[in-house]
Write a structure and sequence with these properties.
By secondary structure, the chain is mostly beta strands. It has strands at 3-7, 10-12, 18-25, 33-39, 46-51, 58-60, 68-73, 78-83, 92-99, 113-114, 118-122.
Amino acid sequence: QVQPVESGGGLVQPGGSLRLSCAASGFTLDDYNIGWFRQYPGKEREGVSCITTSDDTTHYRDSVKGRFTISRDNAKNTLYLQMNSLKPEDTAIYYCAASYGYRCSLRPYEYAYWGQGTQVTVSS
């Protein structure tokens, strides 16, 4: 069973940093494109960042460019989202998702396998 498992969320002050982890349970991370998404209460999920397995091409939504970095550690079968200079508007539930495809995308409907999410709260 393909099951991404997120961890690393929490409460952080504005300007602070968090590193989210996405562990691969039941599958090899390197076989899939992986995306990070977030969801605000009452809103649809939005793509934050993704990485294409074939060539490690990455994509970011404009609002996180220069602040967030996606990376993978194949030896640990884990993917990360380093989040720096966090803002209150980054507060959301963050999800890791896996998909097949030529390229990763920031469109949630292209992902078949989803984790349970981890809460990130940016507040003073």
